[in-house]
Specification:
Its EC number is 5.6.2.1. Belongs to the type IA topoisomerase family. InterPro entries: Topo_IA, Topo_IA_2, Topo_IA_AS, Topo_IA_cen, Topo_IA_cen_sub1, Topo_IA_cen_sub2, Topo_IA_cen_sub3, Topo_IA_core_domain. It catalyses: ATP-independent breakage of single-stranded DNA, followed by passage and rejoining. By secondary structure, the protein is of the alpha+beta class. It folds into 6 domains: about 5-145, 3-Layer(aba) Sandwich (Rossmann fold), CATH 3.40.50.140; about 165-205 and about 475-595, Topoisomerase I, domain 2; about 215-270 and about 405-470, Topoisomerase I, domain 3, CATH 2.70.20.10; about 275-400, Topoisomerase I, domain 4; about 605-640, no CATH class; about 640-720, no CATH class. It is about 40% helix and about 20% strand. It has a 7-stranded mixed β-sheet with strand order 2-3-4-1-7-8-9. It has a 7-stranded antiparallel β-sheet with strand order 15-12-13-14-11-10-16. β19 and β20 (about 615-620) form a beta hairpin. α3 crosses α5 (about 155-180). The longest helix has 29 residues, at about 155-180. The two termini are about 55 Å apart.
Length: about 725
């Protein structure tokens, strides 16, 4: 019997699988044992070919070449990872390998990673599938004991392939058409353009919003505050100040009739377990992590540390077969956070119910929860601890009893007016000992005990309250993710059927791609950040004027996802879907070509590009201002101002580095300015306070491409490095 070739998605997972399968012989890009060979991709090793790879004529961008509807679309090896592809192909093609086990991430994209490699390598051997949600030794062993027939996942691959090809046909063609038509770097796509539209609509709502003053009437009786309510709307806001004053006048000398006293015992369950989107939202709100950062950290906790389950999930429930593992998972995370709550759970029967265990609400993957593996605290960095803590808290919370409280509602009347008072008293904190440690608002039971239904009480005070209506809040990354997940209000169509489609398909994009879409909008300078707020740029606004209407609506992508789901279930042929996509692509190209719209660079500067000497555009990158060449084929760019990790000596906020080499200056929002020479001198005086570990840590952080650059501080600290 021959050997089995196991294909993982990343080296770290490959190494874990090799250890479990006793593949101890290390080769160049693979491990080998008696029965198995384990190798890996580096994410995607193979992708769809660019247009120029179909012929020299497509190297130049021209409307004459559109639409490009090549069939079939070619697969090419990604140049940067070509070496590892050769390793994988060689191992797959070995004569002593009789079958392949796909062990890439268990999902649509993971299936695509493996199948494209197999297709490009032209290997035709039987396929098995490893389908697991965590990469602990136990999960890997259990997964290999119940491998699936690869043919069961053929439709999932068809769906993944259809998604990739559809995005290529529409995205590549529409982007080239816009760029050629308007001679500007413009791009669009089925997810990024509706997302940009949502940001634009929110900004429009805010700009059009006119605040309104409103008033209320409050009466105090027996130490309890009662608020006026409209008899019909049950709303306490009065938009006419004169009306509020008339109500106050009419209450002088009056008593309050107690018409109803209602006492209710209530309870609420903890929020559901985390899916990726909800985790990204909370991490953004609490720690200001971007969506991409949160995904990256969670992926590392899953892959490298093996303390969390698979992160790219859209489910917030677990399945019944996981219930027996819950106590092991509690033990694994019990020492990390909320140990008293964990100890309590381990000593009792667990509160298992439909609020978090439901097979019907789990598709490919269950919610993100801790694994049975205890984390090594020393191996987790601060950011990893924060994300792990969020998941642990949510996990423990759903297992704890419900939060219980007593609510008393009192309805009073004076003249023809209605007044309402409500209070609550906590009887059991339940899950809130983990998720909400703040003291709950309570009421003085003695005050309410003096209130009896059918009686009258003296009004001791009457006052007018006031407030002002607020506009919708600008999007931040967390709220934008929520809008992408549930974009119903941003649909132009009011059809209930289409709204249902949006709900069933989980919004626009997927949990795995939304973070990348937001990043792409930033890197294309279609949106920018001001603090935490996301704003659309002038370029973004103009792009929405140029893009065909259908591409701007969330409905289109929802319909695509619905059809892709049908393909994955075998109820729709991939070829039928792609035929419609090609027809749609032709329509999009014609619409762009016939458009009478104009595009203007309104951020043109007088600075010349060092590469081609054309005038450059000033844009706000995610880390600061920069200049980019207006010529899309040149690609020249220069930094104007960079947010650094250096702190202002006055207000301790991050300093911005401006100017070119030889004339750099540090600037702070508080007004502090400091030349590079002064900065270096100040830092020199602090050298005795800097230890070697801090220096090494800082320099390593500064080397990362996605971190703010602070050459001056790095240079200053480098002097102390031994």
């Amino acid at each position: 019997m021959g050997k089995k070739l196991v294909l993982a998605e990343k080296p770290s997972v490959g190494k874990d699988i090799a250890k479990v399968l006793n593949c101890n012989k290390k080769g160049n890009g693979f491990y080998e044992g008696v029965n198995h060979i384990v190798t890996w991709a580096l994410g995607h090793l193979v992708t769809l070919a660019e247009p120029e790879q179909y012929g020299e004529q497509y190297k130049s961008w021209s409307m004459d070449h559109l639409p490009m509807l090549f069939d079939p679309l070619k697969l090419v090896v990604i140049k940067q990872s070509g070496k590892q592809y050769s390793v994988v192909k060689t191992q797959m093609s070995r004569k002593d390998v009789d079958s392949i086990i796909i062990a890439t991430d268990a999902g649509r994209e993971g299936e695509l990673v493996a199948r494209w490699i197999i297709a490009k390598a032209r290997v035709k051997k039987p396929i098995k599938r490893l389908w697991i949600s965590s990469v602990t030794d136990k999960a890997i062993r259990e997964g290999f004991s119940s491998l699936k027939d690869g043919r069961q996942y053929q439709n999932l691959y068809n769906s993944a392939q259809a998604r990739a090809e559809a995005d290529w046909y529409v995205g590549i063609n529409a982007t080239r058409a816009l760029t050629c038509k308007y001679n500007a770097q413009l791009s669009c796509g089925r997810v990024q353009t509706p997302t940009l539209t949502m940001i634009a609509k929110r900004e429009e709502e805010i700009n059009k919003f006119t605040p309104q003053n409103f008033f209320g009437v409050k009466v105090t009786a027996k130490g309890i505050d009662f608020n006026w309510q409209d008899n019909k709307r049950k709303d306490g806001r009065i938009f006419d100040e004169t009306k509020a004053e008339k109500i106050i006048s009419s209450l002088r000398g009056q008593k309050l009739d107690i018409k109803e006293v209602k006492v209710e015992n209530k309870k609420s369950y903890a929020p559901p377990l985390y899916d990726l989107t909800e985790l990204q939202r909370d991490a953004n709100k609490i720690f200001s992590f971007s969506a991409k950062e949160t995904l990256s950290i969670t992926q590392k906790l899953y892959e490298q540390h093996k303390v969390l389950t698979y992160p790219r999930t859209d489910s917030r429930y677990i399945t019944t077969d996981m219930v027996d593992t819950l106590k092991d998972r509690i033990k694994a995370c019990s020492f990390f956070d909320n140990s008293s709550a964990a100890d309590k759970l381990l000593q009792e029967n667990l509160n298992v119910g439909k609020h978090f265990v439901d097979n019907k609400k789990v598709s490919d993957h269950h919610a993100i929860i801790p694994t049975e593996q205890r984390p090594m605290l020393s191996s987790l960095n601060d950011r990893e601890k924060k994300i792990y803590s969020l998941v642990v808290q949510r996990f423990l919370a759903v297992l704890l009893p419900p939060y219980k409280y007593q609510q008393i509602s009192v309805l009073g009347g004076a003249k023809e007016h209605r007044f309402y008072a409500k209070g609550k008293k906590v009887t059991s904190k339940g899950w809130k000992i983990v998720l909400d440690k703040e003291d709950e608002s309570t009421f003085d039971a003695r005050n309410f005990s003096n209130i009896e239904q059918g009686k009258q009480v003296e009004i001791s005070a009457v006052s007018k309250t006031s407030g002002q209506t607020s506009p919708p809040a600008p999007f931040n990354e967390g709220t934008l993710l929520a809008a992408m997940e549930n974009p119903k209000k941003y649909m132009d169509e009011k059809s209930k059927d289409l709204q249902k489609v949006i709900g069933e398909t989980g919004g626009i994009g997927t949990v795995a791609t939304r973070a990348d879409i937001i990043e792409k909008l930033f890197s294309s300078f279609l949106i920018e950040k001001k603090g935490k707020e996301i704003n659309i740029t002038s370029k973004g606004k103009q792009l929405l004027e140029l893009v065909p209407e259908e591409l701007k609506s969330p409905t289109l992508t929802a319909q695509w996802e619905q059809q892709l789901t049908a393909i994955s279930k075998g109820s729709l042929k991939k070829e039928e879907f792609l035929k419609d996509i090609k027809n749609y692509t032709v329509k999009v190209i014609k619409e762009i070509e016939n458009s009478k719209q104009k595009f203007t660079h309104d951020n043109l500067t007088r600075s010349r590009c060092p590469k081609c000497n054309k005038f450059m555009l000033e844009v706000n990158g995610k880390k600061g201002k920069m200049l980019i060449c207006q010529d899309r084929e040149c690609g020249g760019r220069e930094n104007v101002a960079k947010t650094t990790n250096a702190r202002c000596p006055e207000c301790k906020k991050k300093l911005e580095l401006r100017g070119q080499k030889g004339g750099e200056i540090f600037v702070c929002k508080c007004g502090h300015k400091e030349k590079m020479s002064s900065f270096n001198k100040r830092k020199g005086k602090q050298k005795q306070k800097v230890n070697k570990r801090d220096v090494a840590k800082y320099l390593k952080k500064q080397d990362k491409k996605d971190e703010p650059l602070n050459t001056a501080l790095a240079d200053a600290l480098a002097k102390f490095k031994k």
